[in-house]
Design goal:
Layout lengths: L1 H15 L12 H67 L3 H13 L4 H19 L2 H36 L7 H69 L3 H12 L14 H67 L8 H32 L7 E4 H18 L2 E6 L6 E4 L1 H18 L4 E10 L2 E7 L28 H11 L3 E8 L2 E9 L2
Parallel strand pairs: 2-4
Antiparallel strand pairs: 1-3, 4-5, 5-7, 6-7
Helix pairs in contact: 2-4, 2-6, 3-5, 4-5, 5-6, 8-9, 8-12, 10-11, 11-12
């Protein structure tokens, strides 16, 4: 679309004002950018290709060393260790002069005479043969040579093993015809020959590893120089393409600044470019994107806050349940004993009537405080035992009206006037009626406590953006701005004797049902809470 419009601009330019520069305009802006991009892509692809080839060569080299030569070196080291132990065993038998002990040592040697060396030799032969499949052509001759040497060493050791077992069996059977000195000399000569062959293989393998490492280092150095040179060329081509593109894309500077502002978290960076050209259209799309990002960021922060509050409530609930369990039983005992004492006062003699009256007042105060603390512990237990909501399709409009009707007399007795503006039609939501009732009762209680000397309570319901809104606006003293962000947190309260769980519990109950609770407005003239629930 952009290239077509640029071509149209070129045609108009040619028709309206032919000039010596018309030839340079034949290459459109999109084509120039495409050419520069292609040049950078080719240069980068060349660097990538050389890097890939280098990595592939290094992989082959590493595979040859790790799965080939180093494994062969490990096998040789294991064989040399085992063979050294066999040499020691042979020397021990040769030095032993006590026939009975010598026979026991021979029997033990036969029992524990393992075939580990022959197994390792065969393993080395197979490993050298398998390495031929993936090794470069230059290494096939060396691997074939190692395979031949391992096979030859296997044959030598097989002959040695056969002779060794034969001599050990004859020693164990106390064969007097056996010439021990000649037999041990024969075995030790075979062991020495095998040892020398292993040492030869070890030296040859070490030398080959050093040669491969040296070649790998040289190749790595050359490839590094080549990659650096190609990278420099690629960077130069990229710089040239950038300079050319910058000359033709200067109007995008404003857009770039806006993007930079968004990256820094400033979602007020609207461009507001006017016109019908491509840049103006792009700017309008950018402004729409900024607005969407701003809304999404706000939603994300809100969800994070809800998640944090849910975690805090869960932790507070566990602690509260334990505390309530520990406190409730002693409180019940204290309250019961206080009531019994109060009943016994009629049968108790006091010096003066004032003493009896004072004692009754003290017991009544104890009973009142016990009841108050018991009520708080019950709230803690509710927090700890939040049941999952049982969602049913309910008319929350009618539910709010029924709750208000039940408590209307109580509110009027507290000198609170009530104004209502209920939606004229049913507002159905999928909610847990008992939990929503608890939330509404808590908001009515807060409104009443916010107006201790009476006032005006406005209640309304409405539908907005697929949500049902239930509003509660009181004419109390409002909420201070410095604590507004704290009122939904567990245990935060500004009321004397308050538990700080009402709003936190209400928020959690609504969140479990897809709803929310927010402070719509607050001022010295009052506070308005809005309860939102998704429409069914």
């Amino acid at each position: 679309m952009v290239s077509h419009r640029i071509d149209e601009v070129e045609v108009v330019f040619k028709k309206s004002s032919p000039s010596p520069f018309s030839f340079s305009m034949r290459i459109s802006l999109a084509t120039r950018i495409l050419i520069g991009f292609a040049a950078v892509l080719i240069a980068s692809s060349t660097v990538s290709l050389v890097s890939i080839l280098t990595i592939r060569q290094n992989q082959i080299e590493v595979q040859l060393l790790s799965n080939g030569y180093l494994q062969l070196a490990k096998i040789l080291a294991d064989i040399q260790t085992l063979h050294y132990a066999y040499e020691k065993e042979t020397a021990l038998l040769a030095e032993e002069r006590e026939p009975a002990l010598q026979q026991q040592l021979a029997r033990l040697a036969l029992m524990y005479f393992p075939g580990a060396i022959l197994t390792k030799m065969n393993e080395g032969t197979a490993l050298a043969h398998n390495a031929l499949n993936t090794a470069p052509h230059s290494e096939k001759a060396a691997l074939e040579n190692f395979e031949t040497h391992f096979a030859e060493a296997s044959k030598r050791y097989a002959a040695y093993e056969k002779d060794s077992k034969n001599i050990l069996e004859r020693i164990a059977q106390a064969d007097e015809s056996l010439n021990l000195e000649e037999s041990f000399n024969h075995l030790q000569k075979q062991e020495l020959a095998f040892h020398n062959h292993l040492q030869f293989l070890q030296n040859a393998l070490s030398n080959r590893i050093l040669v491969r490492l040296s070649k790998a280092q040289d190749r790595e150095q050359k490839n590094g120089i080549l990659i650096v040179a190609l990278s420099i060329v690629s960077v130069l081509i990229g710089l040239l393409a950038t300079i050319v593109s910058t000359r033709h894309l200067r109007p995008i500077l404003t857009l770039h600044k806006g993007i930079a502002a968004i990256r820094e978290g400033d979602y007020s960076a609207f461009l507001g470019l006017k016109g019908d050209d491509d840049m103006a259209l792009l700017a309008r799309e950018f402004d729409a994107m900024v607005l969407a990002l701003k809304e999404r960021q706000s939603l994300l922060e809100k969800q994070q806050s809800q998640l944090l509050q849910a975690k805090q409530l869960a932790a507070a609930g566990r602690i509260s349940a334990q505390l309530a369990h520990e406190v409730r039983n002693p409180l019940s005992s204290i309250g019961l004993n206080a009531e019994l004492l109060l009943e016994q006062l009629g049968q108790t003699q006091f010096s003066t009537p004032e003493q009896k009256t004072e004692t009754e007042e003290l017991l009544l105060a104890i009973i009142r405080e016990v009841d108050r603390v018991t009520e708080i512990t019950e709230e803690y237990l509710k927090l700890a035992r939040l049941p999952p909501p049982s969602l049913q399709r309910e008319d929350v409009n009618a539910l709010t009206q029924s709750i208000l009707h039940f408590h209307e007399e109580e509110l009027r007795n507290a000198n609170i006037s009530i104004e209502t503006a209920f939606f004229p039609l049913p507002l159905f939501c999928k909610v847990d009626e008992a939990q929503i009732r608890q939330v509404i009762l808590n908001l009515l209680k807060n409104a009443k406590e916010a107006m201790p000397e009476g006032g005006l309570l406005r209640i309304y319901t409405k539908e907005e953006n697929a949500f049902v809104h239930i509003g509660f606006a009181d004419s109390g003293k409002g909420i201070a701005a410095d604590i507004l962000s704290e009122i939904f947190k567990p245990f935060f309260t500004t009321k004397e004797g308050g538990s700080g769980l009402g709003l936190a519990l209400s928020t959690q109950l609504l969140h479990m049902q897809g709803g929310s609770l927010e402070v719509a407005t607050t001022s010295p003239e009052g506070t308005a809470f809005v309860l939102r629930l998704p429409r069914a």
